[in-house]
Design goal:
The strands form 5 sheets. A 7-stranded mixed beta sheet has the order 15-16-17-14-13-18-19, with helices on both faces. Strands 10-9-8-11-12-20 form a 6-stranded mixed beta sheet, with helices on both faces. The protein has 2 domains: about 260 residues, Aldehyde Dehydrogenase, Chain A, domain 1, CATH 3.40.605.10; about 180 residues, Aldehyde Dehydrogenase, Chain A, domain 2 (3-Layer(aba) Sandwich). It is globular, with a radius of gyration of 22 Å. It has about 475 residues and is of the alpha/beta class. It is built from 15 helices and 21 strands.
Length: about 475
């Protein structure tokens, strides 16, 4: 068991103000694997003060030097990938191969991209008789979720550091051990004291204190839409900026003439990744009426390969398992056809949910409208391209999606009409430089690449 008794504040590990702790449980076998302090408002205040003290020096550091520090952090993360993967597997339950290939490797790539952007970004430009400066927004309060614990940390901290900001991180209470490893990596990389600070704690206590703190200039939050709305309200009361990456109910639209077998295969893999705990997962598969039953059969065959405890891990907690099972029961109650899976526990131990496939799902059903955040795929039927577009755009969310067609031009034409922030065209590859973020209730702002860096900058113009 990994037991931590301190917060990383001002470049050193300090005891927490209180004695409360958070117990970390491995969702695959329900064993206790760690313990961290449950920080309070006093810990948050210490961290924010340390960040404010470090801010002027870091903001004045030349971008090339900031880039070198971020590159050093990337190198430390790369050297510790095995340890990171094992830690994520222990506290999230992710199968080790997925932890290695995604949870540990992706943050290294993202950190590297910001090392390059810090060195190449134009922080000053001339417009007519004005010099326009792009300056750090200040102290950033970063509140991260449990589903991709290290990636979400790096996707906030790396651009903030590249911009010249100082950061206070409050990670999710379900997966704080990965955040502790990240703080160790920051220290090993030699970032100046106070530029990065870590406070572990509960959302309603430490998270709220961070969002409310007068010394925080921007709050960057990833998580549920309901919590994001509360954070937005708290931040707006102090007229501070927010960046919110929230929920999703993304559509995987398979147009007539598309390669159905490939579209279904990739679509199922997308939903099952990380046990369905991905905000951008394509949880609604839209298929034309003529090929609908063929698609359902293909999806059922693909889903059968995701064996709990082998190819697919558990969900993060007993609470999350109960939530997902509740949605499965709701789907059956509302008349969807249960093709594969169901609410019954597939294993005696661990927070596992059976990979589940629903057919005959109508757009008004709860499972077609609300984010389930588990290994559940809904297949919807459409009658014509305009009907597909209506269904795809017919939720309060707009985070991601996919379009499959006979050629890229047809898919792009459809994607241009989708109300969503990111669309994969015929299986397009992930791009860590492309902006990621949502329309509608899926959020405000963008992460990754130059657009992610811009979130942490504010603009000043000098008229000459």
């Amino acid at each position: 068991m990994k037991a931590h008794d301190g917060m990383y504040i001002g470049g050193e590990w300090r005891p927490a103000h209180g004695r409360d702790t958070i117990t970390v449980v491995n969702p695959a076998d329900e064993r206790v694997v760690g313990q961290v302090p449950a920080g309070d408002a006093g810990d948050v205040d210490d961290a924010v003060r340390a960040a404010r003290a470090a801010l002027p020096g870091w903001a004045a550091t030349p971008p090339a030097e900031r880039a070198a520090r971020i590159a050093a952090l990337r190198d430390v993360l790369a050297a510790r990938q095995d340890e990171i993967a094992e830690t994520v597997t222990a506290e999230l339950g992710s199968p080790l191969p997925f932890s290695r290939s995604v949870h540990a490797a992706l943050p290294v790539a993202v950190a590297g991209s910001y090392a390059e952007l810090a060195a190449s970004h134009t922080f000053e430009e001339t417009l007519g008789n004005s010099t326009v400066l792009h300056e750090p927004v200040g102290v950033v309060g970063a509140i991260t979720p449990w589903n991709y614990p290290l990636h979400q940390i790096v996707a906030k901290v790396a651009p903030a550091l590249a911009a010249g900001c100082a950061v206070v991180l409050k990670p999710a209470e379900d997966t704080p051990l990965t955040a502790q490893l990240f703080a160790e990596a920051v220290h090993e990389a030699g970032l100046p004291a106070g530029v990065f600070n870590l406070v572990t704690g509960l959302g309603p206590v430490a998270g709220q204190a961070l969002a409310e703190h007068e010394g925080v200039d921007l709050v960057s939050f990833t998580g549920s839409t309901a919590v994001g709305a509360r954070i937005g309200a708290v931040a707006s009361a102090a007229v501070k900026r927010v960046a919110l990456e929230l929920g999703g109910k993304s559509a995987n639209v398979i147009l007539p003439g598309a390669d159905l077998a490939r579209a279904v295969h990739v679509g199922v893999a997308n939903v099952m990744a990380n046990s369905g705990q991905t905000c951008s997962a394509w949880t609604r598969m839209l298929v034309d009426a003529e090929r609908y039953e063929e698609a359902v059969a293909l999806a059922a065959a693909a889903l059968a390969k995701y064996v709990p405890g082998e190819r697919i891990g558990p969900v993060v907690s007993a609470k999350q398992r109960a939530r997902v099972r509740g949605y499965i029961e709701k789907g059956v109650e509302e008349g969807a056809r249960l093709v594969v899976g169901g609410p019954e526990a597939p294993l005696e131990r661990g927070y596992y949910v059976s990979p589940t496939l629903f057919a005959d799902v109508t757009p008004d059903m709860t499972i077609a409208q609300e984010e389930i955040f588990g290994p559940v795929l809904c297949v919807l039927r459409y009658e014509g391209v305009e009907d597909a577009l209506r269904i795809a755009n017919g939720t309060v969310y707009g985070l991601a999606g996919a379009v499959w067609a006979a050629d890229d031009a047809e898919a792009v034409a459809f994607a241009r009409r989708m109300d969503t922030g990111q669309v994969d065209i015929n299986g397009g590859r992930f791009n860590p430089l492309a902006p990621f973020g949502g329309y509608k209730r899926s959020g405000v702002g963008r992460e990754l690449g130059p657009h992610g860096l811009a979130e942490y900058l504010q603009t000043k113009s000098l008229q000459l």
